[in-house]
């Protein structure tokens, strides 16, 4: 079974569409997303329609929760501004969709038991970087594959108990590469392929400007940070 692992799209429509176009060419059995569908960028309703149209299986991230409940506490000022903007622009379809999501997911990918959390099994807001990914997290969820998001930085860590993977961010990479980041996992071969996709950043920059969102949201896309 071949599946795509995505995370942190953050309402960046051009980035998601570029990834989905590539997946259409490559072909995968299912698409999973580890949270933060919205937040930061100004295409929340369009993004959610893409998720629905492509049957993307997703969980709720901290930015999704902030926009859904119009509560930006715990976010930095720039993220808070974007969360409040998003909360004011979600249509009824988007609200219904976000309300339907769970904070975590247990699923079989082929014969492999997998769990997906946005931050970590200990909390949605915890950042688990590669150096922090250890067997204790695997033991806590009782899985063989643990998929995380939130950091926007990709990695694959194999332990004696199982594998911890973060596909990076589709919508706002923070590993110094501006291209959208995601992974393909082949459960039969037990192989992870990290892929990068170019997209039209200028379209996002123009939309950020029109929406009156902070300029830094555009600037960091060019820097991949």
Task: Provide a descriptive summary of the structure in words.
The radius of gyration is 16 Å and the shape is globular. A hairpin with a 4-residue loop joins strand 7 and strand 8. It has one domain (about 1-225): Purple Acid Phosphatase, chain A, domain 2. The model has no long low-confidence stretch (mean pLDDT about 95). The chain has helices at about 15-25, 45-55, 60-70, 75-85, 90-100, 135-140, 200-210, 215-225, and strands at about 1-5, 30-35, 55-60, 105-110, 110-115, 145, 155-160, 165, 180-185, 190-195. It has about 220 residues and is of the alpha/beta class. Helix 1 (about 15-25) packs parallel to helix 2, helix 3 crosses helix 4 (about 75-85) and helix 7 (about 200-210) packs antiparallel against helix 8. It is built from 8 helices and 10 strands. It has a 5-stranded mixed beta sheet. A 5-stranded mixed beta sheet has the order 4-5-6-8-7, covered by helices on one side.
List the main descriptive attributes of the protein structure presented here.
alpha/beta; five-stranded mixed beta sheet; 8 helices; Purple Acid Phosphatase, chain A, domain 2
CATH class: Alpha Beta
* CATH topology call: Purple Acid Phosphatase, chain A, domain 2
Q: Which sequence of strands runs across the widest sheet?
A: 3-2-1-9-10
Query: Could you say which overall geometry the principal axes of the C-alpha atoms support?
Result: globular
- At the fourth CATH level, what is the homologous superfamily? Metallo-dependent phosphatases
| Helix share, percent | 25-40%
Largest sheet: 5 strands, mixed
Number of domains: 1
């Amino acid at each position: 079974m071949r599946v795509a692992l995505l995370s942190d799209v953050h309402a960046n429509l051009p980035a998601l569409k570029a990834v989905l176009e590539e997946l259409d060419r490559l072909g995968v059995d299912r698409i999973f997303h580890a949270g933060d569908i919205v937040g930061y960028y100004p295409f929340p309703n369009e993004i959610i329609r893409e998720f629905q149209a492509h049957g993307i299986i997703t969980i709720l991230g901290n930015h999704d929760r902030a926009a859904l409940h119009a509560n930006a506490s715990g976010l930095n000022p720039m993220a808070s501004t974007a969360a409040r903007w998003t909360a004011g622009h979600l249509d009824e379809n988007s609200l219904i969709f976000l309300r339907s999501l769970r904070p975590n997911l247990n699923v079989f990918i082929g014969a492999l038991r997998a769990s997906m959390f946005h931050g970590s099994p200990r909390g949605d807001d915890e950042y688990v970087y590669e150096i922090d990914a250890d067997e204790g997290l695997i033991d806590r969820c009782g899985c063989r594959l643990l998929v995380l998001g939130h950091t926007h930085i990709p990695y694959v860590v194999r332990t004696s108990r199982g594998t911890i993977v973060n596909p990076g961010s589709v919508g706002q990479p923070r590993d110094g590469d501006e291209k959208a980041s995601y992974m393909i996992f082949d459960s039969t071969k037990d192989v992870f392929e990290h892929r990068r996709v170019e997209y039209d950043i200028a379209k996002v920059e123009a939309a950020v400007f029109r929406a009156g969102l902070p300029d830094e949201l555009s600037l960091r896309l060019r820097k991949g940070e």
